[in-house]
Amino acid sequence: MKLHAPLGRRILAIAAAAAAIAVGQAVPASAAGPLKDITNRYVGSAVAAGPLGSQADYRSVLTREFDSVTPENEMKWAVVEPNRGQFNWSGADAIVNYAQQNGKSVRGHTLVWHSQYPNWLNNLGGAELRNVVREHINTEMGRYRGKIRAWDVVNEIFEENGSRRQSIFQTRLGDGFVAEAFRAARAADPSAKLYINDYNTEGMNAKSDAMYNLVRTLKQQGVPIDGVGIQTHLATKYGYPSGFRQNLQRLAALGVDIAITEADVRIPLPVDQNKLNQQATMFKQIWDDCHAVSRCVEFTTWGYTDRHSWVPGTFPGEGAACLFDSNLRPKPAYTRINP
Ligand code: 9MR
């Protein structure tokens, strides 16, 4: 676990910033020190192997500010096993190696998901698919055993109304595929914390009720689940989800950890000061709600810079959803959290 030593580190950081100015080096984004040093939660970002390998500035701000990384796409099934039995670990290896060399924690993402799985799975019947899923969990978790702090074992299994999404895993394996995945995951790497992860489960609503009920049932059944990932893809136009903190509290009361796994707050383009301030308020609310719940152990954003973000490609007319702008300068959202 992270140690909690913000005050001493702040004083050191202020001294370091003053020294940096004196010798003309790059100044940290905050005089208080990097984000990772002002909290005892893990502070993470999704990362892409491409820029991590090719852009020194992207890598250096990431290294300075964060102590956890989540591969944005590199560990997804379609990427690691595009054809049956043919593996590609290059991106995942690069990120895990970066983490090991730089003392970063890794969040593995993600093992069983209805999206970005390889086409060849579609040809498999239930019995074979069940074996293949177990094998996939074994192979991928086994490869990185001991190097991944937490895994998103199953991802996005609910519809907005709280019913199960009719993925191939659901329709061919039945409701029990979730418990089976967690049991396989525990066996594959007993040192990893095992999470279920989803979006639009921030506030109190039908989908987060379904998540709560499922986790309660899994715990009652002794299924090895350690945590719930709350993705937290927000938009200023929808405002802050009501009951966010209450939802985190009820999940924590089930005896699981909580992670904010994919936070971003998109705004309608073009950006202006008012919109950036609204965004800052919402990011700070996420930060505060996580810190209000002792079992909320991680605050991870889905990319840290507007230079690399999934948002503009998915929501035309919206963007600028990250803590840093595309020139890696901290935005008001960053300084609201870390003044
Ligand atoms: O950011 C990811 C993007 O590059 C991919 O094209 C996309 C494919 O579906 O997945 C994005 O990441 C998603 C994450 O894996 C799961 N939660 C939602 C994220 C944003 O779509």
Automatic annotation (TrEMBL):
Transmembrane segments: none annotated. Residues 1-31 form the signal peptide. Its EC number is 3.2.1.8. Residues 29-339 form the GH10 domain. Pfam families: Glyco_hydro_10. Keywords: Carbohydrate metabolism, Glycosidase, Hydrolase, Polysaccharide degradation, Signal, Xylan degradation. The keyword Signal applies. It catalyses: Endohydrolysis of (1->4)-beta-D-xylosidic linkages in xylans. Gene3D superfamilies: Glycosidases. The keyword Hydrolase applies. InterPro entries: GH, GH10, GH10_dom. Belongs to the glycosyl hydrolase 10 (cellulase F) family. PANTHER family: BETA-XYLANASE, GLYCOSYL HYDROLASE. This is Beta-xylanase. It comes from Lentzea flava.
